Amino acid sequence: MAARHMSGAALVLAGFALVGTGLVAATYGLTRERIAQVERENLLRTLGALVPPEWYDNDLAGDTLQVRDRALLGTDEPVTVYRARRGGAPVAVVLTPVAPDGYGGPIRLMVAIRVDGTLAGVRVLAHKETPGLGDRIEVEKSDWIHAFRGRSLRDPDPAHWKVRKDGGVFDQFTGATITPRAVVKAVRKALEYYEAHRNELFAAQPEESRDG
């Protein structure tokens, strides 16, 4: 009798365990879907801030390819390129390079470049810079990041694509020079990558992977 009671209790506990596991799995699945949805919404919002919808008529978030170039894009990982077109003609690309030498670690960027090689804008996607100092690279914290808009590899000239402390034209932050220096360098290298691969970037098929 006692054995049957213990067996029944074990079955009940096993049932609760299965139900609990199922609930955890379902919750994890829903959470993962929600996170993915939020990330996509953030992506579209950032893309829209850099490349206004009226500039293009293609699926900007879907017309992508993966490229690799550690020297110019700052990472060994594939870098996503978003391509804007209007009537089939190239309008702009958005690169997602990394500034590997931030003060707190790598800084993930989104760099929008018009077809003529001028910058449409830059945004910071992720970083671990010091709050109150290096985090002024965020558009929500200061307007510093807007200084790149309209710039190109020739404006300023190569010798002045630096922060002012290094003889360049871009401001640094009081008490935090390493962070803006890393971002300026990464943006310049993204422009160099675009200039070297402009034709291939627009000619490649969506979702194609290409090494630099």
UniProtKB/TrEMBL annotation:
GO CC term (a single one): plasma membrane
FMN-binding domain residues: 102-194
EC code(s) of this entry: 7.-.-.-
Enzyme class name: translocase
One GO biological process term: electron transport chain
Subcellular location(s) per record: Cell inner membrane
The keyword Cell inner membrane appears for this protein: yes
Modified residues (FMN phosphoryl threonine): T177
Membrane topology: Single-pass membrane protein
Cofactor(s) listed: FMN
Keywords for the protein's UniProt record, in alphabetical order: Cell inner membrane, Cell membrane, Electron transport, Flavoprotein, FMN, Membrane, Phosphoprotein, Translocase, Transmembrane, Transmembrane helix, Transport
Molecular function terms from GO: electron transfer activity; FMN binding
Keyword Repeat recorded: no
Subunit details: The complex is composed of six subunits: RnfA, RnfB, RnfC, RnfD, RnfE and RnfG.
Family matches, as HAMAP family: RsxG_RnfG
Matches recorded under PANTHER family: ION-TRANSLOCATING OXIDOREDUCTASE COMPLEX SUBUNIT G (PTHR36118)
Family: Belongs to the RnfG family.
Function noted in UniProt: Part of a membrane-bound complex that couples electron transfer with translocation of ions across the membrane.
Designated name of the protein: Ion-translocating oxidoreductase complex subunit G
The species this protein was found in: Inmirania thermothiophila
